[in-house]
Design a protein that fits this description.
The chain has 454 residues and is of the alpha+beta class. It is 37% helix and 13% strand. It binds manganese (II) ion (MN).
Length: 454
């Protein structure tokens, strides 16, 4: 379970590290201070209903505060950070409240309720003050001239790639919370629940409301598993339950987990064999999450391994290298192997080897790949290979030059199962990677075993 003492020990050094990184980034770009806005509560057109609040990740990076709109953070190396905490006099809503936490002692906290009170609460800006945040009413009256400078953002994004001990702690907690949700969802699947019912079980398992999820959960039964970002939730359970693909995560202090599991009711058939095969491939790929691994190479390795599995299953009749070269493997795996994970689920800085170097493109024909860098200790990535039976892509292939290399009758027997994706989150270390997802599932299994055999 979450241990506040551990967090309290880790957070102060996180703040110190970020201040050092900020000092380097600001001086490289000719700035001496930074103001970060937490974000705005957006309202629907012609309405008074608010969209769920999404905090500015650059704000959340500095402090475990993700549900307080209109706050401002003033950061200047060598000075105590100032938090202008927004709490309006409002009897319609519960005003944001400062938590009773250790981190609050590390900030100079000033209360604000408007843009004009923010102006009075913060040091006056000069030409060397940068501002990061989305535009809001009255921003121009605060006098910032350098708003979201692109090269400063690139430097800070680069720093966000390397996780501090505090951030790894948050990611582990998010994995545990997500694993609890996945356990509940798996149980709901075995009970014959609908997609909607499984989704509700996931939410209850991780004790989140839907708007708190780091990303919209994908809960797909049967052929729906072939839609990569399937977003509807059928309320009625299908007569036959063949597959559950669930891609869903939780968060802790704003840090997410991004976990996919695929389950099937089939035993001993072709789909179950593919699922077992992909499990083994995913484990092999996870083991290669090491410093020095070029992510583009690992992505292409995944394609070769999956093509070999498809050939062995007699789904395709073509050697793996040729399946990769001709694009046949992409019919079954049209997304990237994985991405950086951080405050944003598809996190920043996946393409620039360094902030001042140009972006590196994905390999030709693999445009969906969101990470093209060489791994270093401190990176956190997802490893999420898949095999799908997507009507749109299969029908195109059937009309194309590779049709002869596909065993169509066998494909047709697998379409009702939709697809498979298995996704873990891994922290790159100097040696064996830390699999945050598997560790979380293992920890829950141990807790369950201890509870039944005390
Ligand atoms: Mn993912």
């Amino acid at each position: 379970m979450f241990n506040p003492e551990e967090l309290n020990a880790l957070y102060p050094s996180h703040l110190k590290t970020l201040m050092t990184r900020l000092a380097d980034s600001l001086s490289a770009e000719g700035f001496d201070s930074l103001v970060v806005h937490s974000g705005c509560q957006r309202v629907a057109f012609l309405d008074d209903q608010a969209y769920p609040f999404r905090v500015n990740p650059h704000f959340n990076w500095w402090l475990p505060l993700f549900d307080a709109p209109q706050c401002l953070l003033h950061l200047q190396p060598g000075h105590r950070p100032i938090l202008a905490f927004h709490s309006a006099a409002d009897y319609w809503h519960k005003p944001a409240q400062l938590p009773n936490a250790v981190w609050t002692a590390l900030f100079d906290i000033r209360s604000i309720d408007s843009v004009s009170s923010a102006r009075a609460a913060l040091p006056p800006p000069n030409a060397r003050t940068a501002f990061i945040g989305e535009p809001f009413d009255g921003l121009e009256t605060l006098g910032y001239t350098a708003i979201n400078p692109a090269s400063l953002l690139r430097r800070l994004h680069e720093h966000r790639v390397r996780k501090t001990a505090y951030e790894l702690h948050c990611l582990r907690e998010a994995s545990l919370r997500g694993a609890r949700g996945h356990g509940a969802a798996r149980h709901a699947f075995t009970q014959g629940e609908s997609e909607y019912g499984i989704h509700q079980a996931f939410l209850a398992g991780c004790q989140h409301r839907e708007q708190e999820l780091p990303y919209q959960a994908i809960v797909a039964l049967n052929e729906n598993a072939a839609t990569l970002h399937y977003q509807s939730l059928d309320r009625i359970a299908p007569a036959q339950r063949r597959t559950l693909l669930i891609d869903a995560g939780a968060h802790h202090n704003g840090y997410p987990s991004d976990i996919t599991r695929t389950y099937t009711s089939q035993t001993g058939g072709d789909f179950a064999a593919l699922l077992n095969g992909l499990e083994a491939i995913q484990a092999m790929l996870c083991a290669k999450v090491q410093p020095g691994t070029d992510w583009r190479d690992l992505h292409l390795t995944a394609h070769r391994l999956i093509a070999a599995l498809l050939q062995e299953a007699d789904l395709i009749r073509m050697p793996p290298d040729e399946a990769l070269k001709t694009g046949l493997s992409s019919v079954f795996l049209p997304h990237g192997l994985g991405h950086l994970l951080g405050l944003q689920v598809h996190d920043v800085a996946g393409f620039h080897p360094a902030p001042d170097q140009p972006a590196v493109a994905p390999p030709a024909g693999h445009d969906a790949l969101r990470l093209t860098r060489v791994l270093e200790p401190g990176f956190v990535v997802t490893v999420e290979p898949g095999i799908y039976f997507i009507d749109l892509l299969l029908d195109r292939a059937r009309r194309g030059p590779l049709a002869h290399a596909v065993n169509w009758p066998l494909i047709d027997t697998l379409r009702p199962y939709g697809g498979i994706r298995i996704e873990d989150n891994l922290a790159v270390t100097t040696s064996t990677p830390e699999n945050l997802t598997r560790s979380a599932f293992d920890q829950l299994a141990r807790q369950k075993a201890d509870a039944t055999n005390p």
